[in-house]
Write a structure and sequence with these properties.
This protein is an all-alpha fold. Helix content is 76%, strand content 0%. Helix 2 packs antiparallel against helix 3 (61-83).
Length: 89
C-alpha cells in the first residue's frame, strides 16, 4: 500500500517537472528597426565616451584618431541601414 502511494507521488512529481519541457512557448521575434536603433544609440554613446576619454587625457592623440575613425565607420554603416526603406513583405 505504501509502495503504491510512493509510486503515485513519484509520478505526480515527474509530471510536474516534465510538463514545462513540452509546452510550446512563442519566441518573440526582434524588430530589426529596434535592433538598429539600439545599435545606433550604442555607437553614439561609444563616440561620446571616446571624446570624454580623450578630453580627460586617458587617450593619446594617435589612439583617439584611430578609434574615432573606426567608431565613425561603424556608426555610418548603422545610419545607412536605418536610412534604407524597408523591403515589402
Amino acid at each position: 500500500m505504501i509502495e503504491a502511494a510512493l509510486f503515485v507521488v513519484a509520478v505526480l512529481v515527474a509530471v510536474y517537472l516534465l510538463v514545462p519541457a513540452f509546452r510550446r512557448i512563442a519566441v518573440p521575434v526582434a524588430d530589426p528597426r529596434a535592433t538598429l536603433e539600439a545599435a545606433r544609440a550604442a555607437a553614439l554613446r561609444a563616440l561620446h565616451d571616446l571624446e570624454l576619454d580623450w578630453a580627460t587625457g586617458k587617450l593619446s592623440d594617435p589612439d583617439y584618431r584611430t578609434q574615432r575613425v573606426t567608431l565613425e565607420a561603424e556608426a555610418a554603416a548603422i545610419l545607412r541601414q536605418l536610412g534604407k526603406p524597408e523591403t515589402a513583405r
